[in-house]
Design the sequence.
């Protein structure tokens, strides 16, 4: 046109796929601020100024969830001004050595204009999600009362089913940012606070309003590792009594994990009767072995209630007894306080 090439969304998105994908390396995890604060006297780390600095650090890191409410640090139990300064707030995966970059060349995208219609037979993302749900429809995991809309979210953006892979629209889709199939990537909508507890250290708590069941809370983020590196770290962590390694081995992937997430810098939010659950979600990644670990509420969460999920997964009494007998420091007494508490968790 007039001697200039015409750029359409399709031609632009295809050109973008040819560029190297954007992702973060674990070796670049920020630590300068943490190192500086840890070098200061304990009196400063216990001061109100440390609380303000910690909240500012979190706020600066929330560049990928610009509309999310700010997070406050609350301590009415001890003199600590903030959680341990090894903590790094992030919703990003930081790729460890040996982990391949995101696969965007094989990523399926839709060509929808405006908001995706989940009932459309032309929407590529709806087709992909519908295909993934077939097994759950066949084995009646999805009830007969299901309305047949393949997106995992209802009209309010609440997760309909747990334990199933979520396939959201991605950066190469033609749909708008307010598409109903873009929930995780729009970020957290509810107030949460980091609060010191009596017996469990620091935890994440709801704010003053009820959070409906099925709401997105955040991402279990950290270093994305090969399972070999995860096993090596796990052996060390077990001895000094701390681990937040999460093997990515959801049932639809097969029996053996290829990758793990090390959220060593996360807080202790375990419960034997959790109100949240981790669900696999794919956005800008075609590799089925590398989903985001997204956290959604399983039920309504009351104002100021602690947000929690099970670190132990689905365990029975025998597994709990064996954990209690173990000499590994990684196992600790559970203080979640739920009626069906098994008495043990990863420390």
Sequence:
């Amino acid at each position: 046109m007039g001697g200039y090439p015409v750029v359409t969304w399709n031609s632009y998105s295809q050109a973008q796929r040819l560029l190297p994908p954007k992702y973060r390396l674990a070796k670049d995890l920020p630590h300068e601020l943490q190192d500086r604060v840890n070098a200061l006297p304990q009196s400063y780390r216990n001061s109100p100024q440390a609380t303000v600095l910690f909240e500012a650090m979190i706020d600066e890191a929330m560049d990928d969830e610009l509309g999310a409410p700010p997070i406050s640090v609350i301590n009415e139990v001890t003199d600590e001004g903030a959680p341990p300064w090894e903590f790094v707030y992030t919703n990003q995966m930081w790729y460890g050595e040996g982990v391949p970059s995101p696969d965007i060349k094989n990523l399926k995208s839709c060509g929808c204009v405006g908001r995706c219609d989940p009932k459309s037979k032309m929407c590529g993302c709806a087709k992909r999600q519908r295909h993934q749900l077939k097994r759950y429809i066949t084995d009646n995991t999805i009830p007969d009362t299901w309305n047949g809309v393949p997106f995992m979210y209802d009209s309010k953006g609440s997760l309909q089913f747990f334990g199933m892979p979520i396939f959201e629209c991605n950066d190469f889709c033609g749909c708008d940012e307010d598409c109903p199939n873009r929930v995780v990537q729009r970020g957290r909508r509810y107030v949460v606070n980091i609060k010191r507890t009596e017996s469990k250290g620091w935890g994440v708590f709801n704010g003053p309003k009820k959070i409906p069941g099925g709401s997105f809370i955040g991402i279990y983020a950290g270093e994305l590792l090969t399972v070999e590196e995860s096993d090596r770290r796990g052996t060390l962590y077990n001895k000094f009594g701390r681990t937040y390694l999460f093997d990515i081995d959801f049932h639809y992937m097969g029996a053996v994990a290829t990758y793990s997430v090390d959220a060593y810098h996360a807080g202790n939010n375990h419960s034997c009767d959790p109100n949240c659950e981790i669900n696999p979600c794919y956005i800008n990644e075609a590799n089925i072995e590398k989903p985001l670990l997204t956290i959604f509420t399983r039920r309504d969460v009351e104002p100021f209630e602690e947000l929690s999920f099970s670190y132990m997964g689905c365990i029975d009494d025998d597994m709990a007894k064996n954990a209690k007998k173990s000499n590994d420091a990684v196992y600790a007494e559970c203080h979640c306080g739920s009626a069906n508490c098994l008495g043990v968790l990863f420390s």
